Fold Inositol 2-dehydrogenase/D-chiro-inositol 3-dehydrogenase.
Amino acid sequence: MFLKIGVIGTGAIGQDHIRRITNNLTGAKIVAVTDVNAEQAKAIVQKENLDAKVYENGHDVINATEVDAVIVTSWGPTHEEFVLASIAAGKPVFCEKPLATTAEGCKKIVDAEIAYGKPLVQVGFMRRYDKGYRALKKVVDHDKIGEPLMVHCAHRAPSAPGFSGDMALTDSFVHEIDVLRWLLNDEYVSAQVILPRNTRLVDKALQDPHIVLLETKQGIRIDTEIFVNCQYGYDIQCQIVGETGIANLPEPSSVVLRSEAKLSTDILVDWKDRFIDSYDVELQEWINSTLKGEMNGPSAWDGYVVAVTADACVEAKHTGQIVPISIPECPSFYKKDFTLV
Ligand SMILES: NC(=O)c1ccc[n+]([C@@H]2O[C@H](COP(=O)([O-])OP(=O)(O)OC[C@H]3O[C@@H](n4cnc5c(N)ncnc54)[C@H](O)[C@@H]3O)[C@@H](O)[C@H]2O)c1
Ligand SMILES: O[C@H]1[C@H](O)[C@@H](O)[C@H](O)[C@@H](O)[C@H]1O
């Protein structure tokens, strides 16, 4: 039995997901695609030799009778509309982050899904599927370093083409917002943003780097450096300081080279390579659970909590204040135990 998928948006990650579903994963095939750039949608159908129809717009994909489930990989501002339409059609939908560009938009999706009465939405927070983050979570869940007290993180990218305004927070830092609350089994209560000296290598109007300080309900303090024009590589760091020990996110595996009087290892430069395995695991688990009529991954509620937290970070950046974060009680519809065995 195959899950027949329609893809809305055949840009960078849309094409990647189409390729992995077609060539690496099992249990699904792409039967419909669309993009505002129709030529690009046609090109991927040809390139991957897909037996898929190219539709004029996302709504036609969602409503196509041959489509069982939808993947939304178009630009962020279009996600809300396509996710709401998928819920209205009663079809499972995997939506790349952000779920919606505003917390209100995410809340509308949460309300629509609850009203529909069955979970249909998964958000593309793939770090929860990364081997390294999963190993780190087991250390926390199995009490190997006592209670977590502090977390030090870095989210560095060589460059951020197309970034403007607060995208370092709303496009990049959102991954930490999601993965850290999952890792720590905790929620955020406040955010503060510190603006260090700006790199000279970006337009003066664009702040880079940022330091974000989050506090959780349990009083854990998290500091994250977000530096999206760091030049040297795509480098994701996470260190948890506990009562009795320290746990670090493992580095991606790489040959340790002793050569020419140097000891060296490569650093990845492309986000696609850093999380390539986790995208595979994420989508395979989504396909498997969707075929069983379940929805186990990051939910619309998680997408909403991330949006509320990101909004607080943006406010903290612009006001220089410590901004309280008030996350409403999680509806029972979405309550899950995330402990890893
Ligand atoms: N999880 C991750 O690590 C990750 C990585 C990259 C991108 N993303 C997210 O995925 C989304 C896409 O990012 P990308 O890098 O592929 O961008 P992209 O610009 O390469 O591709 C987006 C595509 O969507 C198309 N599009 C825009 N509006 C549309 C509409 N109304 N209907 C149909 N197609 C439409 C565009 O023509 C483009 O081809 C973004 O929301 C981004 O944040 C997530
Ligand atoms: O900062 C980038 C993140 O590190 C990636 O994982 C993608 O989500 C990309 O869209 C962001 O711009």
Summary: The pocket of nicotinamide-adenine-dinucleotide (ligand 1) is lined by residues 8-14, 34-37, 40, 58, 73-76, 78, 96-97, 124, 126, 171, 271 (CB under 6 Å). The mean pLDDT is 97. The domain at 3-123 is CATH 3.40.50.720 (Rossmann fold).
